Amino acid sequence: QAPLVESGGGLVQTGDSLRLSCATSGGTFSLYTLAWFRQAPGKEREFVSSISRSGGVKYYADSVKGRFTISRDDAKNTVYLQMNSLQPEDTAVYYCAADAKPGPIRRRSSQSDYAYWGQGTQVTVSS
């Protein structure tokens, strides 16, 4: 499995937008359930969003619902997280995750649901 590589993080102001990307060159990308997690300073890593293999089913944490959108482009082996109306509480290191375990479509919001992780990208939202 080739590594997952996130990009797109940065320093923005409250209300701004960012789009995170996570790409890999290994594996059969279309077989992966994909997700984004984040970890704020001093806090545990938390689920942000996940997307099914087909891209047709998406889940979001309540804290980002309506502001963030997950999508995937299997032709580019890339998963995205469009983040709008960013708030200071969105400040965190954002990680993408992938897993190819078969099974029914479900939320998969636990870190243990994913075998592969990126190195993270920092998002900082100033007030």
Task: Provide a descriptive summary of the structure in words.
The chain is mainly β. It has strands at residues 5-7, 10-13, 18-23, 33-39, 46-51, 58-60, 68-73, 78-83, 92-99, 116-117, 121-126. The strands form 2 sheets. Strands 2, 4, 5, 6, 9, 10 and 11 form a 7-stranded mixed beta sheet that branches. The chain starts with a strand and ends with a strand. The model has no long low-confidence stretch (mean pLDDT 95).
The residue ranges in which pLDDT falls below 50 over 5 or more consecutive positions are: none
Mean pLDDT: 95
Helix/strand class: mainly beta
Using only C-alpha atoms, the radius of gyration works out to 14 Å
List SSEs in N-to-C order.
Answer: EEEEEEEEEEE
Residue share in helix:
under 10%
Chain-wise SSE layout:
Elements: E1 5-7, E2 10-13, E3 18-23, E4 33-39, E5 46-51, E6 58-60, E7 68-73, E8 78-83, E9 92-99, E10 116-117, E11 121-126
TL;DR?
The chain is 0% helix and 45% strand.
Keyword list:
127 residues, 7-stranded mixed β-sheet, 0% helix, mainly beta, 4-stranded antiparallel β-sheet, single chain
